[in-house]
Specification:
- This protein is α/β, with parallel strands linked by helices.
- Helices cover 41% and strands 18% of the residues.
- It has a four-stranded mixed sheet.
- Strand 1, helix 2 and strand 2 form a beta-alpha-beta unit.
- The longest helix is centred in the middle third of the chain and has 16 residues.
- The mean pLDDT is 90.
Length: 91
């Protein structure tokens, strides 16, 4: 992230921790949701289910986090439609 900041490159990350630490934005799965799904799978295996019998699951919840302070620092204007659709806007 230091090189991105040094050269003022707008970057999109996969987890909300990056814009919280000064990155521009993130779009990806909610870590808590993925962790919950893993816990459910582990619980099923511990109760005797065979891993090969368990269905494949994909994340269904995603979040968009924007860091407006970083956008301003990079000289970017964030469209209002993006601001409205964001799950979290860091100012």
């Amino acid at each position: 992230m230091d090189l991105i900041a040094r050269y003022a490159i707008p970057a999109i990350y996969g987890w909300r921790e990056f814009p919280a630490a000064g990155g521009l934005m993130s779009y990806g799965t909610k870590f808590t949701e993925v962790s919950r799904q893993v816990g459910v799978y582990i619980g099923r295996i511990l109760k005797g289910a065979k891993p090969t019998d368990l269905p494949v699951q994909q994340p269904t919840k995603f979040e968009l986090v924007l860091n407006i302070k970083t956008a301003k620092t990079l000289g970017l204007t964030v469209p209002n439609t993006l601001l409205v659709s964001a799950d979290e806007v860091i100012e």
